[in-house]
Every structure is written in structure tokens, then in C-alpha cells.
Design goal:
With about 400 residues, the chain is an alpha/beta fold. About 45% of the residues lie in helices and about 15% in strands. It folds into two domains: about 250 residues, no CATH class; about 130 residues, Rossmann fold, CATH 3.40.50. It binds S-adenosylmethionine. S-adenosylmethionine binds next to helix 3 and strand 5.
Length: about 400
């Protein structure tokens, strides 16, 4: 039985839970909202795009692809509408008002997603999204009326999912709908989590007796169905798929082996791993050292973690670090690491700087080859904490509170 524990999160997008890891993949407040709030908006993409003609993004721990999809959606539906004058690319200006999606590409875009779970990569373009905000009492407490309105604005256009689907079909060909995927899709209790178009596609395969693994049939059907029902989205997706300026690629690989094998440098790295205690191998000082080598000088790593040990691991590798401000929740929700100090908008405060020098700030460590397993990484850190003379974070917090009251 394939592990697929899904439920709708509060903004209508699908969130997952892993029993095996004992961790959530997405915040219950909104899987999609979280992608915009923790990665896309704090990345200051407008400023970057207005001053560069190329952008390279690495989405580590791609999962269902919310961060990559939100970037594409931001680019084609928010950025391109706001910025119809790009100083270094003014030959495009006249074409912006035409409805050809490719006229909205002002940059060379490279977008790479990496995830160890093949099923999630393949399912990512097929995931549905309830358009209506889920209006529970709990939500009303969490979101003010204003935020409720804002969270409704998060969306992913159909053609972005189809674009990803086309790329995956190209990658997997006959093996797209394999045994695992079929098991997940055929399970009745999962059906609500997938798009109607896909459900229709699968049904058509079953009814008409097509072999599920036939790539050509799948493409032909996809072509027919999308042309018939959502032709504009399909046409846009095809145009993007064929456009030379946008290079999208998914890697079904361990993030550590990926980073060791790539020779690319990225402008943005979205690090969306499970929490440090569940997946410490993607939060070690050694892994961050490798990320440093693959980040451009104007680049930025974004993570949702604000733990002192993670911040110290960045500092040990000569990054400048800052905080992510979430304007919807009106609080700081993560960490930004860069090579360029001027990109930091929110510096750590005195309390947070002090916390770095407590036991909570002790880093997770890997070996130089990045091959230690999670259990060993956790054990080594536990031993380092036990042998450390540093003050505990609990004591530090108490002392800090008292000093503030004096
Ligand atoms: C918190 S979820 C990320 C959610 C994701 N960004 C999304 O939009 O759905 C963590 C992801 O990390 C992936 N993962 C876990 N260990 C990994 C590894 N060593 N290398 C690459 N991906 C990994 C899991 O499969 C999971 O999809």
C-alpha cells in the first residue's frame, strides 16, 4: 500500500502527512498560502527580476510542487502584469498586450525541483484545489477578515499544472502511470484530491481499455480532452513547454547527492525539508557548505526554519542571515541566507543573536561526503549537546526575560 495521507488544508489546497516520518508536509493553515508567504513573497523577486535577465531557481524538496508552481504563477500572473516595462528587455513591451503566454517571458528561466519521492513528483500536476476557502470556526480565529480575503487570492492557473504534466510525461514516458501511481489514483477515497480532468482521463483509460502505460495514448487523450475542455490552458502550457527560454526539470533524487552532482549556480534555493529533528541530513553545516558553493553572489536561500542551530549552520559557512516576515500572520516565520548583506531586510534581534550561543544553537553535522544517516546525525548532536558548556536555551530565555524587566 502506497503511503498517501491527504486532506484539504484551510485555504482549499491539499496537504499531506507522512506516518513513516511522523511529520506534516504542509501547514494545515494552507499548503499553497504557505508557499507564497514563506518562499515567493519574501524572495523579493520583483527587485531581482527587474535587475537581471536570467533567473535560476532550485526547489529542494519539491513534494507536490507548491513552491515551484507558486513561482511560475507569480511570474506569469503577478510579475508580468505589474511590470510591462522591463528596462533591459524593452523589445518585448509592445507584445505584452497580446494573449500569447510566451510574450510574458522576459527572462531566461531555469527551475529545477528535487525530491526523493517519485510518486509526489508525478502527482504534483494532478493535485486539485478547492476554489472556496474552507470556512471553519478555527479558521476564523486564525485569519482576520483581511487575511481571509488575501488567502483567497492564492491560486495556481491550470496551464501551470499542465505545463508540469507535459514535462513529467516527457521525463517518464511509458512509466508515468506505474503501479504505485495507479494504486493512489484508483483509490476512491483519494479521488477528491485530484483534478476532474485527470479523473476523466483515468476513467477514459479504464472504460476504453487503453493500456495505462501507453505514453502515446496518454498524450493523444490529453490532447483531445484538454483541447476540448480547457483549450486555452492546454495551448498555453504547450507553448511554454516548447519555449526555449524556460527550462523546467524535475529530479527524483536525494537532495544531498543532487547538490554534489550539479555544477549549476542558483539565484534562489527554496529549502523545504521536513523539520530538522525528522530529517537532519538536509540541515547540517556540511550540506549548507555545499549550498554556498551553488548559490550566486546575489542569491538567496529561503527556509521556514527559525531554529538557532540552523541559523548557526548558515553562519559557519559565511552566509549573512536574516528573518522572513510573514505579513499575513504579522510575525517572523523563517530564515534567509545570502552572500550579500544588503539583501537582508530583517536582521536578527538581540534575543535571537543570544540564542545562537546556547545549546539550542549547536549544529547538526554530516561527514564531508554527505553520507551520514539521520540516526547518526541526531546521536552526534545529542552527544555534542551533553558535552557542551553552553547555557541551555530554557535558562537563557528565563535570564533574558528577567533582564528585560529590570
Ligand atoms: C515538507 S515536504 C515539502 C513540501 C513541498 N515543498 C510541496 O510543495 O509539497 C518535504 C519533502 O522532502 C522530501 N524529501 C525528504 N527527504 C529528502 C531528501 N533526502 N532529498 C530530497 N527530498 C527529500 C519529501 O519527499 C517531501 O516531499
Amino acid at each position: 500500500m502506497v503511503n498517501f495521507n491527504a486532506k484539504f488544508t484551510n485555504d482549499g489546497s491539499v496537504g499531506l502527512y507522512s506516518e513513516q516520518i511522523g511529520d506534516i508536509y504542509h501547514s494545515i493553515y494552507g499548503a499553497l498560502s504557505e508557499a507564497y508567504e514563506k518562499f515567493i513573497f519574501p524572495a523579493n523577486l520583483d527587485e531581482f527580476l527587474n535587475t537581471h535577465d536570467e533567473i535560476k531557481i532550485l526547489d529542494l524538496c519539491y513534494g507536490l510542487g507548491y513552491n515551484s508552481k507558486s513561482f511560475l504563477n507569480f511570474y506569469f500572473n503577478i510579475y508580468s502584469k505589474k511590470n510591462n516595462f522591463i528596462p533591459h528587455l524593452n523589445n518585448y513591451i509592445n507584445s505584452i498586450y497580446t494573449n500569447n503566454i510566451c510574450n510574458k517571458i522576459f527572462h531566461k528561466i531555469t527551475l529545477h525541483g528535487v525530491d526523493i519521492d517519485k510518486n509526489l513528483l508525478k502527482l504534483s500536476p494532478l493535485i486539485s484545489h478547492k476554489k472556496k476557502f474552507i470556512n471553519t470556526k478555527k479558521n476564523m480565529n486564525i485569519f482576520s477578515k483581511k487575511n481571509l480575503f488575501n488567502s483567497r487570492k492564492f491560486f495556481i492557473k491550470d496551464y501551470i499544472n499542465i505545463f508540469i504534466f507535459l514535462n513529467l510525461l516527457e521525463l517518464y514516458k511509458k512509466n508515468y502511470i506505474d503501479k504505485d501511481l495507479h494504486e493512489i489514483l484508483a483509490n476512491n477515497s483519494n479521488k477528491k484530491f485530484f483534478t476532474l480532468n485527470l479523473a476523466y482521463l483515468i476513467k477514459k483509460f479504464d472504460l476504453e481499455g487503453y493500456e495505462l502505460s501507453q505514453y502515446e495514448c496518454l498524450l493523444a487523450l490529453l490532447h483531445n480532452i484538454y483541447y476540448k475542455y480547457i483549450s486555452n490552458s492546454y495551448k498555453n502550457a504547450l507553448k511554454l513547454f516548447k519555449n526555449e527560454n524556460i527550462k523546467f526539470r524535475l529530479y527524483n533524487q536525494d537532495a544531498r547527492s543532487f547538490i554534489k552532482s550539479t555544477d549549476l549556480t542558483y539565484d534562489y534555493i527554496f529549502l523545504d525539508a521536513f523539520s530538522p529533528t525528522k530529517a537532519p541530513n538536509l540541515w547540517t553545516a556540511e550540506f549548507f557548505g555545499n549550498l554556498y558553493n551553488h548559490l550566486s553572489d546575489d542569491g538567496m536561500i529561503l527556509t521556514y526554519s527559525n531554529s538557532a542551530s540552523i541559523r548557526n549552520a548558515f553562519l559557519k559557512n559565511n552566509f549573512y542571515i536574516g528573518k522572513i516576515f510573514n505579513k499575513y500572520e504579522n510575525r517572523f516565520t523563517g530564515t534567509i541566507a545570502t552572500k550579500n548583506e544588503s539583501l537582508i531586510k530583517h536582521k536578527l534581534d538581540n534575543f535571537e543573536i543570544g540564542l545562537l550561543n546556547t545549546k539550542a544553537g549547536i549544529c547538526y553535522h554530516d561527514n564531508a561526503e554527505l553520507t551520514l544517516d539521520d540516526k547518526t546525525i541526531l546521536l552526534n548532536r545529542k552527544i555534542a549537546c551533553e558535552n557542551s558548556n553552553l547555557i541551555s536555551s530554557t535558562k537563557y530565555k528565563k535570564e533574558y526575560k528577567c533582564s528585560m524587566m529590570l
